[in-house]
């Protein structure tokens, strides 16, 4: 009779277990030294080896001839326990036996000593499913068990277990397996099963399993059942995910801001019956690999990708700035979460694609960072193609410096009636209020200089390098928030105005202007720089 792969490849000894090195080392040492605790709690997500470790521990402490902490598998005790014929080891699923009556029936047998082995072992799986009354019934026995009694509790949700139970157990937390550990184990399974499997296919299964070995073996079992070799295409078909070429093409459409192409590809995706949430999950993983390719050293292989695909990721990452990649990843994660509740998952995907292709408003700081990053990418591409820009011999005569501007605007205050709050105090109080209630307004406003109060209007002046802050604050919604804060802090029908500051004449301005112009010419070339008076 056929057995599923995860049952066939369930580890029989601690040496067969994949990962969990610290836990395995501790349990083997306890078996070797005979320091066996009366209660253990194995915690962790699904498929991380909790039940397997519990069964190995039950055989090891009853083995007649243990081998370095492992059960020998050949003695009568090991064979009896492995065939589920032993009365000394009892395994119970708390999910289907959660009532207090069932726990009481179980505990009534505690007084009977083991018949063949040294210890009597109770393995209670999904112990968090027990009722409160069942936990209370278990507590007394767990607190003072007979010397031959060992409880091994396994759970995926330790936070649901009462503290009185937790404090009486040795707790071991089983971590998720890494993609590399899962892929190596799947390669061994496929090889010993006589099935050819592509490395990229095994890496794809490892990513889809999300740290659970049982899930990975189940996916591999499904792909092997289709017959033939386990290829990346077969795995993607079994999982219902888009192929790698589609992910690269979709990312290219976003990199080139081609919204029409992105919508066409979404239509193709939907006609092939793909799940939107699965696609967004795959695409976010693709974007993270692009970010890793951008940040890793050249020539360094990405985790879970071949050398050829690593080069493809590096080439595509060059079309994105780090700032844009970060924004698209964030939007993709939000879209993935939104599909759980949206009436039309396709609409969520299309909106995400159009937002990713769109250029944010220039007054947005994030948009400015993205544009700077794109310019840096273009310059790097020119250097990569061997284009060397040098304008040392082609610099045009510099324009004459502009006449010195007037002095910095003077703060002008309108006299206020006696006993009223001074305008500067109102301004400072409003800043404190905005810092607490509207930090997004306080940040840009704090970059300006208080410009005084006149004719019912408070003014703030902004230097040239932060004039985009002035533009942000001049928007109707933001300006109203500043005026509301001023009115709350003592003003009456106050208005607010953000103005550019006029800096005094600077004797070094000519030199800086010349250096800036020369820097632009060196960077972009003389033919790309147009000088207007």
List the topology elements:
Layout: H1 5-8, H2 21-33, E1 39-44, H3 50-62, H4 76-82, E2 89-93, H5 100-107, E3 120-125, H6 132-143, E4 149-155, H7 163-166, E5 170-174, H8 179-192, H9 199-209, H10 213-225, H11 232-239, H12 244-255, H13 259-271, H14 276-295, H15 307-317, H16 322-338, H17 345-357, H18 365-384, H19 423-437, H20 439-445, E6 449-454, E7 457-462, H21 467-474, H22 476-488, E8 495-500, H23 509-524
Classify the oligomer.
single chain
Largest sheet: 5 strands, parallel
- Summed up, the domain count is 4
Record field, number of beta strands: 8
Q: For this structure, what is the CATH class of the largest domain?
A: Alpha Beta
Structural class: alpha/beta
CATH fold title of the largest domain: Rossmann fold
- Per CATH, which architecture of the largest domain? 3-Layer(aba) Sandwich
CATH superfamily of the largest domain: P-loop containing nucleotide triphosphate hydrolases
Distance between the termini: 88 Å
Question: How would you describe the overall organization of this protein?
Answer:
The chain has helices spanning 5-8, 21-33, 50-62, 76-82, 100-107, 132-143, 163-166, 179-192, 199-209, 213-225, 232-239, 244-255, 259-271, 276-295, 307-317, 322-338, 345-357, 365-384, 423-437, 439-445, 467-474, 476-488, 509-524, and strands spanning 39-44, 89-93, 120-125, 149-155, 170-174, 449-454, 457-462, 495-500. It is of the alpha/beta class and 533 residues long. 51% of the residues lie in helices and 9% in strands. The strands form two sheets. The chain has a five-stranded parallel beta sheet with strand order 2-3-4-1-5, with helices on one face.
């Amino acid at each position: 009779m056929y057995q599923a792969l995860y049952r066939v490849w369930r580890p029989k000894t601690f040496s067969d277990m994949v990962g969990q090195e610290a836990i395995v080392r501790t349990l083997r040492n306890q078996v070797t030294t005979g320091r066996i605790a009366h209660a253990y709690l194995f915690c962790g997500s699904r498929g991380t080896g909790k039940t397997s470790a519990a069964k190995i521990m039950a055989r090891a402490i009853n083995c007649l001839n243990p081998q370095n902490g492992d059960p020998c598998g050949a003695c009568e005790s090991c064979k009896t326990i492995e065939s589920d014929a032993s009365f000394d080891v009892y395994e119970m699923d708390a999910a289907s036996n959660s009532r207090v009556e069932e726990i009481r029936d179980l505990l009534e047998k505690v007084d009977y000593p083991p018949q063949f082995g040294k210890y009597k072992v109770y393995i209670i799986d999904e112990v968090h499913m027990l009722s409160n009354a069942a936990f209370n019934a278990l507590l007394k026995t767990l607190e003072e068990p007979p010397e031959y009694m060992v409880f091994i509790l396994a759970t995926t949700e330790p936070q649901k277990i009462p503290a009185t139970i937790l404090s009486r157990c040795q707790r071991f937390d089983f971590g998720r397996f890494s993609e590399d550990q899962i892929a190596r184990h799947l390669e061994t399974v496929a090889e010993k099963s006589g099935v050819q499997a592509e490395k990229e296919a095994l890496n794809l299964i490892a990513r889809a399993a999300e740290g659970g070995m049982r899930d990975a073996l189940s996916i591999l079992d499904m792909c092997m059942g289709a017959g033939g070799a386990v290829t990346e295409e077969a795995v993607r078909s079994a999982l219902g995910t888009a192929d790698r070429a589609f992910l690269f093409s979709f990312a290219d459409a976003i990199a080139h801001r081609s919204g029409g192409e992105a919508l066409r590809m979404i239509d193709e995706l939907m006609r092939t019956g793909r799940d939107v949430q699965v696609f967004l999950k795959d695409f976010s993983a693709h974007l993270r690999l692009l970010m890793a390719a951008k940040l890793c050293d050249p020539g360094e292989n990405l985790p879970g990708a071949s050398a050829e695909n690593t080069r493809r990721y590096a080439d595509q990452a060059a079309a994105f700035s780090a700032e844009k990649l970060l924004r698209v990843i964030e939007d993709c994660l939000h879209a993935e979460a939104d599909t759980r509740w949206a009436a039309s998952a396709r609409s969520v995907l299309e909106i995400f694609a159009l937002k990713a292709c769109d250029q944010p408003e220039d007054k947005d700081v994030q948009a400015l960072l993205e544009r700077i990053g794109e310019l840096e990418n273009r310059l790097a591409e020119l250097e990569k193609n061997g284009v060397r820009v040098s304008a040392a011999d082609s610099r045009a005569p510099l324009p004459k410096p502009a006449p010195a501007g007037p002095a910095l605007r003077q703060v002008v205050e309108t006299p206020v009636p006696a006993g009223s709050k001074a305008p500067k105090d109102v301004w400072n109080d409003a800043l404190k209020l905005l810092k607490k209630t509207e930090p997004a307004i306080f940040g840009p406003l704090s970059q300006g200089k208080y410009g005084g109060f006149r004719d019912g209007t408070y003014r703030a002046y902004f230097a040239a390098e932060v004039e985009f802050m002035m533009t942000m604050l001049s928007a109707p919604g933001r300006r109203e928030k500043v005026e509301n804060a001023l009115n709350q802090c003592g003003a009456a029908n106050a208005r607010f105005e953000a103005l550019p500051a006029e800096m005094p004449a600077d004797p070094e301005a000519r030199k800086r202007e010349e250096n800036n112009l020369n820097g632009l010419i060196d960077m972009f070339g003389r033919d790309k720089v147009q000088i207007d008076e």
